[in-house]
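My current task is to audit a protein record that another person submitted. I have pasted the whole thing underneath without changing anything:
***
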Amino acid sequence: MKPIPHAALFDSRHRLLPTLCAAIGLALIAPGAIAQVDAPAAEALMKENKCTKCHNPEKKKKGPSLKTIAEKYKGDAGAEGKLLKHITTGPKVKIDGEEEEHEAIDTKDPKQLKNLIGWILSH
């Protein structure tokens, strides 16, 4: 096989550069970013914990929609940690101008929590 000259890497007849760029890009993505979310398990966990009383995937209820939450944290490298703290500690939240305690998720299983947070952020 004849080697491809350096200048030819940018030639549209050769697909090496785009392929190389795609491979490097995939290698740079954090391994967890590609993981699939188990939506039915996340939805079930939300229902078990009565999160759906205040949160809906698309519409604002008593609390913000999951879509709004995902938009708020889009591009935030610390989003998972912030959401983990929020859903596991039961902090005070303002709802219609009044402070209430946010209910904490009733699980300590890191896989369930990571899945739920991934599902919320996927909206």
Remarks:
- The domain at 37-121 is CATH 1.10.760.10 (Cytochrome Bc1 Complex; Chain D, domain 2).
- Residues 16-28 form the longest helix (13 residues).
